[in-house]
Amino acid sequence: MIMKKKNKRLTISLMRNRKGWLKIVEAFIAILLVASVALIVINRNAGSKDISGRIYEAEISILREIQLNNTMRSLILATTPGVESDNENFPGIIKTKIIERTPNYLRCKGKICASSESCFLSNTGDIKEIYAQSVIITVASDSGEYVPKQLKLFCWQK
Question: Which helix (H) or strand (E) holds 123?
């Protein structure tokens, strides 16, 4: 009789322990499901990052390199305003620098404008998003003549 009570208690105890373990496993599986859904949502958002920051950094880098070069600055100041980089009157050294320094995922076009004017790209075609940055180009002059120009760089994704 004592043995039957012990076996019965042991059986009841084991049954209770199994229920406890089952609840622990269920909770663990629920946590895994919630975590995996959260990771999937985060990865989807990470894949659609906005690359405008990278494009603007590339543009600024190209423009600064041109702006800090005395030869290129002189060429820009000697060029008539309104000339785009696909025009034959655009300085070749500057056009080459723009092409060399443009990342392979972008297409860029430069334009030299008067600093007092608005500077727009003449033919955009079917381009949806154009990113533009500009710098003012000046040279210290003893003659008192001060005619700054603007070099504007327009870039878009290929």
Answer: none
Q: Are 114 and 150 in contact (CB under 8 A)?
A: yes
| 85: amino acid identity, one letter | S
The pTM assigned to this predicted structure is: 0.66
Q: Are 149 and 82 in contact (CB under 8 A)?
A: no
Torsion angle, CA of 133/139/144/147, rounded to 10 degrees?
Answer: -30
Question: Read out DSSP for 73-90?
Answer: HHHHHHSPTTEETTSTTS
Place of tokens 């940055």: 133
Reference 101, options 148, 58, 45; nearest CA is 58
pLDDT tens profile 76-90? 998 989 999 989 999
* Structural domain boundaries in the chain: 1-49, 52-157
Q: What's the token pair of residue 154?
A: 């327009």
